Write the structure tokens for this entry.
Amino acid sequence: MNITRNRRFLLIIGKAVVVALTLYFLYLAIFTAPDTLLSWRGILRSARKSDYTFLLILSALLIPVNWGLEAWKWQLLGQKLEKLSYLRAFRAVMVGLTLGFITPNRLGDYAGRVLELKSKERLEAIGAVFIGRFCQLVATVLVGSLGLLYFIWLLYWADYPAICLSLVLLLLVLNLALLLLLFHARAMVALVSAVGPLQKLTKYLAIMGRYTYHEMYRVLLLSLARYFVFLLQFVLLLVLFNVRLSPLEYVSGVSTAFFLKSVVPSVSLLSDLGVRELSAMYVFSLLGQERLQVLSASLSLWLLNIVVPSALGLFFVLRLQLTKKRVAA
């Protein structure tokens, strides 16, 4: 009885801490930093005066599509551990999103998805979460490499052909290496097991080697679909804030910004807030665009896809039950 009561008490405390931290970081991100507050004032003012206000609404309508695709991915990946309905997969994604919002590099995403499983081997889901995130990285690098090739050809090829050719070959090797690792995940598991300090993690990552080529292909397609939803949202917001480019420049600029954001290390507690904005401002400045307009679009993208879903995810966190009856292995 005391054990059950203590568990419930710890669960309540844990939920309260998550709620408090989430609200605190939301407050820090939006209301305390002068530059951020100024940017949001500019966003609201521009949105009210723009003839393209409907684009903001359209971008918001794509939020459930974005995270719905992620839930579909998790449903496919989680099936290796236990039968997982789409609703449970979506709930796990939302819990992981909220916990990831308040942890460096979204590490809380692992905990959120693991906690929503019932299997006694649910810690093995760490490998499933990792392979899903790795697959999203592969999608980002694949499309982002095409965007980088556009900038290499546009800005540097005429003056530095040898260096540009080297960069092209480097991108080709990078893409091939990531695809080989994705479709031969056993190699990643073997690499981890060969490193002494990491050997203890092998049992949690072993599940990665159990996915078939067909399963990885489906997850990669879903990752690409989710990527293009994200890209479309960014393009719509850029148009809203008066960034005028050709379709090719929009796609190349956004995909390159996503690529740079993904490869630049970050320990931000706010879902890489800052790295993404700097990447986007730099890339679009190469196309002659005003940084404040790009910053407004990037911050709006963060607000729509991270802040709003993280706040909604608090509902699922509060309903989280750590004392669920586990299914048999």
Residues 322-329 have pLDDT under 50 and may be disordered. The chain has one domain: 2-318. The chain is about 75% helix and 0% strand. The two ends are 26 Å apart (CA to CA).
